[in-house]
Amino acid sequence: NAGVTQTPKFRVLKTGQSMTLLCAQDMNHEYMYWYRQDPGMGLRLIHYSVGEGTTAKGEVPDGYNVSRLKKQNFLLGLESAAPSQTSVYFCASSYPRAQPQQPQHFGDGTRLSIL
Amino acid sequence: RKEVEQDPGPFNVPEGATVAFNCTYSNSASQSFFWYRQDCRKEPKLLMSVYSSGNEDGRFTAQLNRASQYISLLIRDSKLSDSATYLCVVNYNQGGKLIFGQGTELSVKP
User: Fewer beta carbons within 10 Å, N or C terminal of chain A?
Assistant: First the structure.
């Protein structure tokens, strides 16, 4: 059981380049999330999805887009990368709100550097 | 005011010590509470959920005080392997979103 898998694990981009981060989960979770973590800032929610075909903005959505075409996958896109987007990105998934005590399961993270 | 606030630490304690972390949250409608552990440059992992009546898991005890809107984590008989950052997490039950505190760093020394 792989859980939550993120690809790639590391990436270096130049300013203005675009890329897509992939998150895949095999736990049949309805909810999926993308966070970024910066030193001293904790985890901040970028976008999230409560089901296939639906997405919503989180705390820091600017400069990112997401898509949830399949239940098991949640894609995070950077259309024009900026140095301020250098961060560690975590994807997570969880069961829906009917089970409010259910925690989130995290992927290993993607370390992204924008030069 | 941040929605979830923690003492950032670091807490430097000797092996065998008892250490307590506190966390406050701003939304009185919050329904679910967790403590996560994060090792350096790794993903957060669930340590324990926090229930209204308080709960214990081995050396770890979590307490919830809804009236004062704070959560605590007590670690007894600290081990070297307990060294990590501990994240206080609150679920507002709005689409399953979790709000993370900035974390409290713990360093257990021999």
Answer: N
